[in-house]
Design brief:
It is a single chain. By secondary structure, the protein is an alpha+beta fold. The protein folds into two domains: 8-49, no CATH class; 63-123, no CATH class. Helices cover 43% and strands 11% of the residues. The chain is built from four helices and four strands; from the N terminus they run ββαααββα. The protein has helices spanning 27-49, 63-68, 73-89, 117-123; strands at 8-10, 16-18, 97-100, 109-112. The chain has a two-stranded antiparallel sheet with strand order 1-2. The N and C termini lie far apart (47 Å). The model has no long low-confidence stretch (mean pLDDT 85).
């Protein structure tokens, strides 16, 4: 379809192309825009490859222990995701988790968004 200003064409092998009509904008500006996106994508990829991943195992922290302390094991995991992202990137991440509402009339799937001000204050 050519109903968009700048259609981005992607193929199965990862090749990408841009096809647009020049009357509304200069081709040099569009080329520069996509070159900047390309360069930024490469920079971010290289940066992410430099991250060292460490796995911490806490076998003593399990579902039963969490529940005996009145804590949700899932909440502990969600908090660990938020804390890890903050430590790795010095920023906060918006996350969501699927939640079944099938027990309710017309219920299907909703999302829970655990990123709150309380979480922000806790991990800061």
């Amino acid at each position: 379809w050519f109903d968009k200003s700048v259609p981005l064409i992607e193929t199965a092998d990862g090749t990408a192309a841009v096809n647009f009509e020049h009357s509304w904008d200069d081709g040099i500006a569009i080329l520069r825009y996509f070159n900047e996106i390309y360069q930024e994508t490469i920079r971010i990829l290289l940066q992410s490859l430099q991250i060292i991943v460490n796995t911490l195992k806490y076998p003593e922290l399990n579902k039963d222990i969490c529940k005996s302390l009145g804590l949700s094991p899932d909440a502990i995991m969600q908090l660990s995701f938020q804390l890890t992202f903050k430590k790795a990137f010095n920023d906060y991440v918006g996350t969501y988790e699927s939640c079944s509402t099938a027990a309710f009339r017309h219920g299907r799937i909703e999302t829970v968004r655990p990123r709150t001000m309380a979480i922000k204050h806790l991990i800061t």
